[in-house]
Design goal:
- The complex is a heterodimer.
- Chain A is mainly alpha-helical.
- Chain A has helices at about 1-10, 15-45, 50-60, 60-95, 100-115, 115-125, 135-140, 150-160, 160-175, 175-185, 190-220, 220-225, 235-245, 250-275, 280-290.
- Chain A has two domains: about 1-45; about 50-290, MetI-like fold.
- In chain A, helix 4 crosses helix 8, helix 4 (about 60-95) packs antiparallel against helix 11 and helix 9 (about 160-175) packs antiparallel against helix 11 (about 190-220).
- Chain A is globular.
- Chain B has helices at about 1-25, 40-60, 70-80, 90-100, 115, 160-175, 180-190, 200-205, 220-230, 255-260, 260-270, 275-285, 290-295, 310, 315-325, 330-335, and strands spanning about 30-35, 65-70, 85-90, 120-130, 150, 215-220, 235, 240-245, 250, 285-290, 305-310.
- In chain B, about 50% of the residues lie in helices and about 15% in strands.
- By secondary structure, chain B is of the alpha/beta class.
- In chain B, strands 4, 5, 6, 7, 8, 10 and 11 form a seven-stranded mixed β-sheet that branches. In chain B, strands 2-1-3-9 form a four-stranded mixed β-sheet.
- In chain B, helix 2 packs antiparallel against helix 12 (about 275-285), helix 3 packs parallel to helix 4 and helix 6 (about 160-175) crosses helix 7 (about 180-190).
- Chain B folds into two domains: about 1-115 and about 245-275, Periplasmic binding protein-like II (D-Maltodextrin-Binding Protein, domain 2, 3-Layer(aba) Sandwich); about 120-245 and about 305-335, D-Maltodextrin-Binding Protein, domain 2, CATH 3.40.190.10.
- The interface between A and B is medium-sized, with 22 and 23 residues.
Amino acid sequence: MASDVLAASLPATRGSGVRARRILIGIAIAFIALFLVLPLGVIFAEAFSLGARAYAAALADPDVRAALWLTLGITVITVPLNTAFGLAAAWCLARFRFRGRGAIIALIELPLSVSPVVAGLLLVLLFGRSGLLGGFLEAHGIRIIFAVPGMILATLFVTFPYVARELIPLAEAQGSEEEQASITLGASGWQTFLRVSLPKLRWGLLYGVLLCNARAIGEFGAVSVVSGSVPGQTNTLPLEIQALYDGYRVQAAFAAASLLAGVAIVTLVLKAALEWRHREELRATRRVRVA
Amino acid sequence: MMKRRTLLATAPALAPALISFRALAAAPSDLLNASYSPTGELYKAYDTFFVRFWRGKTGTPVTIRVSNGGSGAEARAVIEGLPADVVTLAIAYDIDAIARAGLIARDWRSRLPDNSTPYTSTIVFLVRQGNPKQIRDWPDLIRPGVQVVTPNPKTSGGARYNILAAYAWALKANGGNAGKAKSYLAALLKHVPVLDASARNATLSFTQRGLGDVLIAWENEALLAIAEARGKGFEVVMPSLSILAEPPVAVVDKVVDRRGTRSLAEAYLRTLYSPDGQDLVAQNYYRPRLPSVLQKYAARFKPIPMVSVDHDFGGWDAAQKKFFADGGIFDQVSLPSQ
C-alpha cells in the first residue's frame, strides 16, 4: 500500500518506477525460488524418485519411526521448559533493574554465539566418564551422555535463548502501567500475569515458541556429539538422515528429510493462519507498540 | 474343584518359566557394537545371521544394536561412557586408546586369532568408467590435471592407511630415500582439492558429487561403491604396492563385566571367524581370513603386494607418532609453507 502511495505521488517518474519495481520484485522472487523453493522441491523430488511405495516404505522403517518419535519427544520436553524460562526471564528482566542485569541478558544469548559442536563437547566434558561429574554418575549407574538425557540437555542449551530474546524487548517496550492498574484494582499476581501480561506478550511468545520449536526439531551439531548414534535408540531425525545418506540410502534419507521439510511448512502455515485470524488484534498491538 | 486342580497342575509348569525369566533379566540379551562407518552393511548382514545362530544354539533371543561413526569418534564415545559391549574399529590405535583408558585389557590383540582382526582389506584406487585419466599406479596420481580424493588422516582412522600406502610405495620407488618419499607425499596432497572428514564422506564426494578423478579408498569401500553405483560406472585399479589394512575387534571388558554379557560378546566376535561369518565378510567386500572362503571369492579379491603397519612401520604407536601426530610427516608435507 505504501508503495502505491509513493508511486501515485511521483507521476513524473512513474514509468521508470514501475520498471524498477518490477525488476526488484523479479530479483526477490528469483532469489527465493533459487535458494528456498528449489532446494525444498529437490527434497521431495528425491524422496519420491523411486515411487510412492518406496517413499512409504522408507517412512515405515522402524529406525526412521523411532527417530521421529525421539525428535518429537525431545521437542515436547524442551520447548515448554524454555517457554516457561523465557517468560520468567522476560518478566524479571523487564520489570526490575538490578546489578548484573546486563550480564544475565548476555548469558541468555550465549548459546547463539557458541558453536553447537562446542555445546555438545561441554556436556561431554561435564558428564562424560572422564568428565567433572563422570565418576559420580558412573558410580550411581546414571547415564546422561550418549543417551537421551544428554540429547535433551544439548537441545535445551541450543534453544535456550529463542523465547527469552523475543520477549525481553517486547516486555520492556510495553512497560508495566497496565499491570500496576490491575494490581491496584485488586487482582492477584497470577490474575495479573494470566489476564494482563500474557495477552500483551502473546505474539512475541508465539514467534519465540515457533523458532524454539523449529530449532529443537532440526538441531544436528550439539545432539550429534552427545548421541550414542544407535539407530532405533539415540538417533534423532536429522542424525538418522545423515546415517541413511552415508549408508547409500539416498532416497530413504530424502524421504526422512521430507518429514522435516513438512514440519517447517506446517509451522509456516500455522503462523500465517494465526496471524490472519487475529489480524485486527495484531494491527492494534502494533499500533500500541509504535505509539 | 476342577479349577483348583488345573491351577495346581500348572504351578510346577510355570515355575521354571518364572526362573528362566529371572535368569533372562539377570543376563541382558542385548549387545551394543560400536563400529566404524564403512562396516554398516557388513554388520547389518552379520547381526541378522548371528541372532538366528544364537537362538538356534542357546534358545535365547538376542538383540544387537550398532553405534556407527568414525573410528576415532566411536573410540572417544566408548571412553566417555558409551556402553558398547564390543568395538569393531578401523585401526588398532583406536582400540589401544580405549585400553589406555582402562576399559579393555592391554593384551586385547592376542585374545582372538590373527591379531584380533577377523577380516582385512587393502588400499586401492577407484576411477571413473573406462579410466579416462589412465591411472595405473601411484605416480599417475601426481600427473598434471589429476585430482585425487582422500579423507583427512587426522580425523579418519582409515585414511591413515592411504597415506602410509603412498609413502611405502614412494620409499620403495626411491630406493629407501625418505626425503624423496616425503616429496612424493607433498606432491600427492597438492592434488587433493578437499580433505573430507571421514572415509564415507570422501567416497560420497567422489561417487555422488562427482568430485575428482581418482579416489584412494579401502578395497571394501571401493567395491561397495561400485555395487551401489546404479548406472554410474566406476572401476577399481590395483596399484603395484599397497598396504594390509587390519580392522580389529575387541570385547570391552569393563562394560561386559558390569552388564554380564561377556559370553555373548565373546561368541559374537568369535563367530566372525566361523565359515559362515567369513562368508558374510567376503560378501560384504572385506577379505576373509579363512583360506577356503578366500579361495571361493578369488575373483573378487585379487592378490596384491602389500606392506604392513606392524612389519614396515613398527606398529601403530610408532606410525602414529611419526606420521600423524602434530608436527609429524603429514603436517610437514601438508602445511602451505612447505
